[in-house]
Amino acid sequence: MQVTGLAGAVATNAAAVAADKAATQLARQQAEAAVASVIYADTAAGLAATTNGQFFLVIGINGGMVVASVYKNVAGSAVAQNLQHPSLAAYEALAPAVDIDLMTLAGITQPVLKSPGGRAYPLGSGGSRVQRDGTLSTPNWEMNIIGVAAGEKPMLAMKSRGGKLVFLAGGPVDPMKVPAQASGSGGSLFSKTQYDYAQSLANAERARKMGQDLSPLLRMTAGVRVAPHGGQSKDAASDNARTYATLARIALLGLKANAVTISRDGRCLMTGDTFLTYDGNSRVFHDIRSNMTHGTNVDRIVTPDEYARGDYPVNARGEWCGVLRPFIRRALQCAWLGIPYAADPALMEIAGSWSKTDGLAADVFAGDGAARSLSYIDVVLAALASPSHIDPSYVFPAAIGTRGVESVPIKHGEADNGTNGGAGTANYIAIRSAWYSTFMAKLGLAFGQTAPFAVLERQVGGPYATLLNVAADQQAAMGNDISGASRWVFMTSQDYECPNFKNVGGGHPGAGDPHHSLAGAVILAVRDGIAEHEISDRGVPHFIPEPLANGFYVGNRFMIPVVSKYPGLHEAPMPWGVTPTMAKHRGVSFKSNAGALNTVTSINVVPGPEYTLIEGTCASDIAGFNNGQTGRNDGGEYLGFTNFRDGMLPDIPIKLPFDRNQIQYGNVAYNSGVPGNGYVDDPRTNGFGRYIEDIPGWVGDYDWGNPLAIKSFTMVPLGV
Asked: How far, in Å, CA of 349 to CA of 226, rounded?
């Protein structure tokens, strides 16, 4: 069941909530009095009263913010357990904006905690209680103060039964989990006053973006949710490098959602002004989980059994990366609501792609490209009115008369970025805005939809990065618009994050192809699913980290404030082709107006959980090299990516890469394009080696932090 509003249809009983809060306060006061008798005055007293291996409590610190701190007797020494029980004063001082209300989520009325970041967390329908040690506990969560030592700022957090932490106050704001973050508080290149000043600017911009009102967006709880994908080849399944994300393997992985495509292959022919599917039948509702055609343009479905035993040709094609998206979203939604992972019987999703291989914005979002996107809606209407076939495994929802578009994932901009010596498209935003208005009008006529839809934007970069990055900068600008014509555009992913074959040599059969590998297809699908979940289910904005419009310098030292929804900014390898790489400059460059490059000699994330700052040094004074950019664009080492991610760590039901038996391409000999021992191409062992790249260090432990956006910014002197 999809929720609406901030976290769902809210059924708040104000009197009951007030009584609950009062009862909780009284219970906590009583708990503090009850627990006082077992709290020792100091660690020496606790050690004297316990034996090796036993735990004990010592009276709290930080001016009454903590009732007691937990220690363990280890061979006569007191070892702090980094766990402190909060007092009533802690809740009153740290979390004045935290509210507990009664809400109805998925048909269950339960207490829900609203954090200052705007999210709502179901606490469970079994009621809440205050434990003897003063901890507020619910069936799903336990509240505590963590990380408190002498002189540190207390951090109030909730801990789920699964071990997930959510900071409410005093610490990082509302991450999905505790991110990895360098310890300490500040770097060595600037003063704490300067760090705090730069961070305050980043925090202010973050607050502006988080303050965007998403209530006008369409959010469906029942009916037919139409999901048209748009853009270029990476959303068009124009080659078999996207096969894995849409095969019957999704069914074998146990992913669940009521998601279908129109026809057996829901992508269009990518030419002309009419949506025509490859198999010629646009009225077939087919379960996405078995959606794979047997060879190029052949009207033949590969069954799950055929897939499992590898009974299909190597040129078998599937759909685009986006059809995995609804399964990821549903898994996140169920986990968030605290309900069993299952398809939502009230909702049906129809996925399709009207993308066009290659083309400028004027081709894809105007002319025949725009006409094809409108034609797709007509095809949906016709199929719903008179389907020629319905997959027997699929059950239509009862409220099929309700139709709408919540979001449109878009991957586009390669040709508009200034690629291959072109100047790029200066009016990229205007073209995109005009298409949005046209498409919105079509939805009004077709579905009676008046509520706007979200655009899930994937920024161009990586193998398509250029000296200019014209489209990339305009995409970043669209993501920062929270009240204008682009206010419903949300940056969801980075093209440079995805492994591709552009820079793979050694006779690799895909060498020179900039399209992402199948692992890359899944990365993009997961990114879209996360964004949809946050925007449409939780009702909160989604954006990837990016530099502020201005960075700062003093002499040859620089500092770049990063606007990040999630804390935990950190360095991470990014794929250069299919090889995880750490660039010496981490993807940051500074240039003069004449294009001269000031070499970056050191660069790192400023330590401390309160900071989302990048600092470093250049070979010479930065004055005169004021043109900064992330996604190094000088055509030199490792063009088009950065080595920074935020701390978002979602729980998703799929591991990446898929097969620890894959062998990374690189120093593998090929003979006339025929691979030797360089890959496994056997679906029975989860293979597809020539299209999935096993990247050492990523197997089963992928870093889902959002990559830093490619963006131009201006360096100015630091005046504090």
From this structure: 6
Tokens of residue 693, six digits: 């790249």
**For the residues of 106-148, what is the DSSP string, one character each?**
TTEEEEEEEPTTS-EEE--TT--EE-TTS-EE-SSEEEEEES-
The helix (H) or strand (E) run that includes residue 69 is strand 66-74
**Where on the phi/psi map is residue 240: left (φ > 0), alpha (ψ -120 to 50), or beta?**
alpha
Asked whether residue 35 carries a pLDDT value surpassing 60, the answer given is no
Report d(CA 708, CA 326) in Å as an integer: 25
Cα–Cα–Cα angle for 64, 68, 71, rounded to 5 degrees: 145
Amino acid at 468: L
Rounded CA-CA distance 161/412 in Å is: 41
**Residue ranges of domains in the chain, CATH in brackets:** 14-174 (no CATH), 223-540+658-685 (3.40.50.1110)
Residue 364, SS3 per DSSP: helix
- Please state, in angstroms and rounded to a whole number, the distance separating the CA atoms of residues 516 and 691: 9
| Cα 554-555-556 angle, rounded to 5 deg | 105
Ranges 121-130, 336-345, 370-379, 585-594: which has the least confidence: 121-130
Q: What is the pLDDT of residues 583-642, one digit of tens each?
A: 889 999 999 999 899 999 999 999 887 889 999 999 999 999 999 999 876 666 777 889
Measured between alpha carbons, how far apart are the two ends of the chain, in Å?
51
Contact 712, 595 (CB under 8 A): no
The verdict on pTM exceeding 0.85 is no
Nearest residue to 332 (alpha-carbon basis) of 536, 32, 42, 519: 536
CB neighbours of 168 closer than 8 A, spacing ≥ 6? 94, 95, 98, 113, 115, 116, 143, 156, 157, 158
Per-residue exposure over 107-126, b if at least 16 CB sit within 10 Å of its own CB, e if not: eeebbbbbbbbbbbbbbbee
For residue 292, give both structure tokens.
Answer: 């794979």
**pLDDT of 538:** 85
**Cis bond upstream, residue 340 (ω within 30):** no
Contact at 8 Å (CB) between 472 and 715? no
Nearest one of 27, 209, 29 to 117, comparing CA atoms: 209
Give residues with Cβ within 8 angstroms of 262, minimum separation 6: 277, 282, 283, 284, 285, 350, 352, 379, 380, 383
**What DSSP element (H or E) covers 89?**
helix 88-94
* Residue 390, Cβ density class (10 Å: 0-12 exposed, 13-18 middle, ≥19 buried): middle
Q: Which residue has the higher pLDDT, 350 or 37?
A: 350
SS3 at position 604: strand
SS3 at position 212:
coil
